[in-house]
Every structure is written in C-alpha cells, then in structure tokens.
Amino acid sequence: MGSAEIAIGKVLLIGVTGGTGSNAVKGLLEQKVTDLRAITRKIDLERPSLSKLHNSGVELVEADLDDESSLKAAFAGVSAVYCHALAPDLAKPDPQEVVRAQRIAQAAKQANVNHVVYNSAGGADRKSGIAHIEQKYRVEQILKQANLPTTMLRACLFMEEFWKPYTRPSILKGSFSFAVQPDRPLHLITTKDMGRVAAYVMQHRSEYVGKDIELAGDVLTPKQMAAAFANAQGSSVAYKEVPPWIFLLLFRKSLFDLIQWYRKQGYQADVSALRAEFPGLLTTFADFLEETRWANPELTYQDL
User: Fold this and answer.
1) How does pLDDT run across 79-108, given as a tens digit for each residue?
2) Residue 44 above 60 pLDDT?
3) Closest by alpha carbon to 297, among 171, 166, 190?
4) For residue 12, which phi and psi values (nearest 5 degrees)?
C-alpha cells in the first residue's frame, strides 16, 4: 500500500457485454476509471447490455476475438486491458478460450499495453481438477509467458449466482437449497467489486503488476447465508443441503465435480486481509442483498 495513484489512460474491456461483465464496468466507472473502450462483435444499440454501456460513456468498438486482424484497431492507443471473460461461463470449458487468450496476448504485446488485469478463478493455482478453473490457469500462463505486465484477480463465487431463476424463487418462498455442508464456509464476491478492485490495481500499477489475488468480499456458511436472506426478506428461510449425487442422476458430471470441490477444498481467499487492503471496495453479502433489492419479487437477474 501507499504508492501514489496514477493516471491509467485508455482501458480496453474484453468480455463485458454479458450480465456479470456489465456489472464489473459499473465498478470501474464508480472508481472514476472512465476512459473505457469495449469490444463487441457487432454494435447493436437495440441490445440492452450494449445500450447501457454506450449510455454510460463507454466507447464501443467492433472486433471479434476469433479474428486476429480485427483486434488491431481495438487495441490502438490502449494503455491497459481488463479482461472479464473470453468465453461463456459454463461448467464445461470452451477450447476457444485458450486460442483467444493467445490472440489477446499477441495484440496486447504489439500495442505495448502496460497492464493486463484478468478475471481468473479462485483456486486456479491449486490443481483443482475442475476443467473450467484449470483452463483459467492456462489463460493466466499464456498472458504471463507473453511477458505482459499482469495482475490476476481470481474470483470466488459470484453473489449474483443466487439471483439466477433456478435459485432465487425458492429462497424468496423460504427454502435455500445448495449442495454444500451447512457449516462449510463459502467465499463470495460481487461482479461490481471485480471492477472496483480492477480499477484500484490499475491506479496502483507498480504495486500490483505480477500479483495474483484470490478475491472475495465475504465468507459465510450456507446457514449464515440463509439467515442473511431471511433478514433481507423479513421472512424465515431454511437451509436444505442437497446431496451432490443428484447432479450425476441429472447427467451433470462437471457440476458434480465442482460441488465436490466446494465441499472438500474450495476457495481460500483471506477476506479480512483483502478488506484491509481494499478498504471500501468489497461488498458484504448483507449489503449486496440490500443494494440489489433482493426482497422485491418484481425484480429479476436482468435487473441487476
């Protein structure tokens, strides 16, 4: 801590046109990082996510991560890169993620970018055996091997996941089901905080180039989360532990493996140290529920 805040210059945003990415952009803007350019395959302002970015002052540029020649213009004049995603966030990894990372590394190198901040996954460095986490580590290695000045923000479980249509309705009705032991700590982070912390590390570049940070803003057991939901809703919520084998019956082997990893190893972020290092930038779960107006049944994941 303690180095002076620097002017960052133009920041290129990659993979921010989906729900979690656009929330990360809110975090960057909140921290006064405003010279932003976002890649999209096609500038279509009828798309709500692109319209939101455009209206918040983000420059949109057409480029395709699968077309190397289209990246040159996107990287022109760029000082830093925030890469939120190179593929959809699925339990089964997309092999294109690795190829895209190679293209990005090449383009960033040619553009003399002086800082790349990558949204990786908690546990990426711990041989998790989870395919999509392992692949994030491969992306990290590609960026590092290109000798790019990098900071890896290894995200833990996004709080926004609990807003998904397969989770939230039953919680609002009083039942929180999850396949993790009731007293097993879960490390949680908001997507907006990914942007806030990305802004901070870019503003304090010399301290953070070369660092890998497992990032969480709160750590709670499922029982404590049920209590937080109940408090936000003003009605009781019971936690129900779902047996992991249920996912095998549903032919969801990759999800079963991830749940087993949560149950046995899981994330290891040091939340109290992170809160001290990034004061005011990390959101507690209770604050997240309040800020997103969790208790309002009219709202959906799309309203985040």
Assistant:
1) 999 999 998 776 677 889 999 999 999 999
2) yes
3) 171
4) -90, 130
